[in-house]
Amino acid sequence: MRISTQMMYQQNMRGITDSQSKWLGYGEQMSTGKRVNRPSDDPIAASQAVVLSQAQSQNSQYALARTFATQKVSLEESVLSQVTTAIQSAQDKIVYANNGSLSDTDRASVATDLQGIRDQLVNLANSTDGNGRYIFAGFKTDTAPFDQTDGTYKGGNTAITQQVDSARDMQISHTGSDVFDKFTSNAKPEPAGSTQETNLFKILDTAIAALNTPVAGDQAKTDALVASIDKANRGLSNSLDNVLTVRADLGTKLNELDKLDALGDDRALGQTQQMSDLVDVDWNSAISSYTMQQAALQASYKAFSDMQGMSLFQLNK
After folding, report:
1. Where in this chain does the record put each Flagellin N-terminal domain (predicted)?
2. Residue 1 pLDDT exceeds 50
3. Has residue 58 been placed in a domain?
4. pLDDT tens digit sequence for 117-127
5. Domain residues for 27?
6. What is the spatial distance between Cα 285 and Cα 289, in angstroms, rounded to a whole number?
7. Of 312 and 189, more confident
């Protein structure tokens, strides 16, 4: 095989070009801190990195969803804490109103206090989240769930849910009917022949009306008043039990969200490490390869320069 000057030149130029490309590649790795800067650097690692990046993005979205859920649940718990205090205050007023020594005027004063508590509870039931969305309205967040006058529920019947992890959909709110118009399964029953009222506001309305009705020594009216107060006492006790049950559920959800956050943080840490193993540069290897490739490139330059002095190159001029 005849070796021409052109062939020797092309071979040396190809060697220099390859060495220079590798040297620049190692330089880019050290500059970016990435071993894989484009798919061609490592097709398998690049494809795995794309899949892992999607998983990281999904994990971040779930973390954001949990933040929203935690805020939503915490806000409801805060409101229900105030509701609990208000119901307990109403119970105290009802117990006091059952004192037989009170006059009609005294009972009317108690009724005024209960009216204030009732109005407070309606306002709490119609609380918003700070963005104008009603907390206890279900998906009808733009409508006040309870009528100020008669306490009728007008909100949605479906509670809001949020996907807080890949396999977990969580109910992050309760409808107003579940909180203020419902009793637990072990609620105190009414006497035979008496209808049970579950709406908290109507329970208070009935008690207020009874306390505002003068008795004036009439035994029948007194008996009716006592019966009304006893019913209101049972109704408030049942309402309080229901609110406490809802609060227990909220506490359980907050605890679960904390655990899911911890799991998500661990998952994110693992994904970051996997991504680093796939695409990040091995500094010891990169620096060593960069130095050796630089030496090889310099040697290639020297060899090419020396070859220009050989006779074959001289004769070709």
Report:
1. 3-141
2. no
3. no
4. 999 999 999 99
5. 13-33+287-317
6. 6
7. 189
Same domain, 174 and 294: no
- Token reading at 282: 């091995």
CA distances from 122 to 111, 147, 194, 200, 313 (A): 16, 8, 26, 9, 100
**Which residue's structure tokens are 């279900």?**
138
Residues 160 and 228 in one domain: yes
| Residues 50-76: tens digit of each pLDDT | 888 899 999 999 999 999 999 999 999
Distance CA 34, CA 20 (A): 19
35-44, 175-184, 289-298: range with lowest mean pLDDT: 289-298
Instruction: Say if residues 244 and 85 touch (Cβ distance below 8 Å).
Output: no
**Helix, strand, coil content of the chain in percent (nearest 5):** 70, 5, 25
CATH of residue 78's domain is 1.20.1330.10
Q: Please give the structure tokens belonging to residue 38.
A: 């484009």
> How far, rounded to the nearest angstrom, does the alpha carbon of residue 172 sit from its chain's CA centroid?
9
Same structural domain, 197 and 316 = no
**DSSP β-bridge partners for residue 165:** 168
Q: Tell me the pTM.
A: 0.79
**What is the number of domains present in the chain?**
2
| Residue 138 scores a pLDDT above 70 | yes
Rounded Cα distance between 188 and 201, Å, is: 18
What mean pLDDT is predicted for residues 165-189? 95
Check whether residue 185 and residue 96 sit in a common domain. Answer: yes
